[in-house]
Specification:
Layout (H helix, E strand, L loop, with lengths): L1 H25 L2 H37 L6 H16 L10 H24 L4 H4 L2 H36 L3 H8 L9 H8 L13
Helix pairs in contact: 2-3, 2-6, 3-4, 4-8
Length: about 210
C-alpha cells in the first residue's frame, strides 16, 4: 500500500514538473532565456570591437606625433577621449543600467568623433599621407569602425526583440515574475551625433 502511494506521488510529481515546463514554455520563459543569451553575445561583440579600436589609438597617436607641427589640440582630444572611454567599466550588466549605458555610449561617441577629426586633419599633412605605417593604421581603424557599426546594429536588433518580449502580454507577466527588465540600447539621437562629420578647416598648415 505504501509502495503504491509512493509511486502515485512520484507520478504526480513528474506530471507537475511536466505541466510546469509546459506552462513556462507557453508564457515565454524559454524565449527569454534564448534572447537574453543573444543580447549578451551581441553585446560582447560590441565591446570586443570597441576594445579593438581603443588598442589602435596609442600606435596611431605615436605615429602622428612624428609629424612636425601637427595640431596638438587634436591629439590631446583623442588621448583624453580614449582615457574616458576605457575608464567606463563595460560589464555584461551594463545593458541593464540605462544611466551607465548612456555614460558608456557618450564616452565611445566622443572617442569616435575625436578619431574622425584626427583623420580629417591628417589630410593637411602630405608626409603623413605618404607614411605607410600611418596608412596601415588608418585602414585598420576604418575597418574597425565598420565592424563596430555591424556589431552595434546586431545588438540593437537583439535588444529590440528582447524588449518586445518583455513588454508584450502574456510574456510580460513572466518578465515580472523572473525579473526580466527591458535592456538599454543605442539611441537614434546619439547615432546621429556619432555619425555627424566634424567641422574642420582645410587651410594650409603652418611651416612644417
Amino acid at each position: 500500500m505504501q509502495t503504491l502511494f509512493a509511486r502515485t506521488l512520484r507520478r504526480l510529481g513528474g506530471l507537475g514538473l511536466l505541466l510546469a515546463a509546459v506552462a513556462l514554455s507557453g508564457c515565454g520563459y524559454n524565449d527569454f532565456q534564448r534572447q537574453d543569451e543573444g543580447v549578451k553575445a551581441s553585446w560582447a561583440e560590441v565591446l570586443n570591437q570597441y576594445q579593438r579600436r581603443a588598442d589602435l589609438v596609442p600606435n596611431l597617436v605615436a605615429t602622428v606625433k612624428g609629424e612636425a607641427n601637427f595640431e596638438q589640440e587634436t591629439l590631446t582630444r583623442v588621448i583624453e577621449a580614449r582615457s574616458k572611454a576605457t575608464a567606463v567599466q563595460a560589464t555584461p550588466e551594463l545593458v541593464n543600467n540605462p544611466e551607465a549605458f548612456q555614460k558608456f555610449q557618450s564616452a565611445q561617441g566622443e572617442l569616435g568623433s575625436a578619431l574622425s577629426r584626427l583623420l580629417v586633419v591628417t589630410e593637411n599633412y602630405p608626409n603623413l599621407k605618404a607614411n605607410q605605417a600611418f596608412q596601415d593604421l588608418r585602414v585598420q581603424l576604418e575597418g574597425t569602425e565598420n565592424r563596430i557599426t555591424v556589431a552595434r546594429n546586431r545588438y540593437i536588433k537583439a535588444v529590440q526583440e528582447y524588449n518586445v518580449l518583455a513588454r508584450s502580454f502574456p510574456s510580460n507577466l513572466t518578465a515580472m515574475v523572473f525579473g526580466y527588465k527591458p535592456k538599454a540600447s543605442f539611441t537614434v539621437q546619439d547615432e546621429a551625433t556619432i555619425s555627424r562629420p566634424p567641422a574642420v578647416s582645410f587651410e594650409p598648415a603652418a611651416s612644417r
